[in-house]
Amino acid sequence: xxxxxxxxxxxxxxxxxxxxxxxxxxxxxxxxxxxxxxxxxxxxxxxxxxxxxxxxxxxxxxxxxxxxxxxxxxxxxxxxxxxxxxxxxxxxxxxxxxxxxxxxxxxxxxxxxxxxxxxxxxxxxxxxxxxxxxxxxxxxxxxxxxxxxxxxxxxxxxxxxxxxxxxxxxxxxxxxxxxxxxxxxxxxxxxxxxxxxxxxxxxxx
Length: 205
Description:
mainly alpha; Methane Monooxygenase Hydroxylase, Chain G, domain 1; 0% strand
């Protein structure tokens, strides 16, 4: 039935390419945050926020084309969900930056370590999406590793919060908890996007 619809109503948009572009820009945005955390002088925060803005614009363009498209290569609800999940990752990456600036908080080993793992996850997610059209089985091979990055961030968060709760400075503890939580939330949304990606793979194979 899908092949028949494709012949009668040729696909107007390449959603594989658009998801691939969004995943790649997400990975670039998280990498830029990681580099900024390691050396803030290497990139102005305004340039970093521009990275986040471009990723968000790609998401909005995809959603508009999704409304306009008659046919899609797989369930349009899954396309929407995976795009929103990726967008939430970049939103919380930006929230990490904005919170650190608002609270005048310098990067510490916990923040850098958590974002390093998040970067690993978004890099692998981008690689997984890039081969979804040509080889969904190859995409499947990335799923477990991406999920492991979320588990590792959760563990780092718990360890960090254990130390925070022992702090003698409650205001500093609150500031740290806020920033750590943004990174954990970014990881949680990446994990949700992986679930959608896995569902797509199951349906394609």
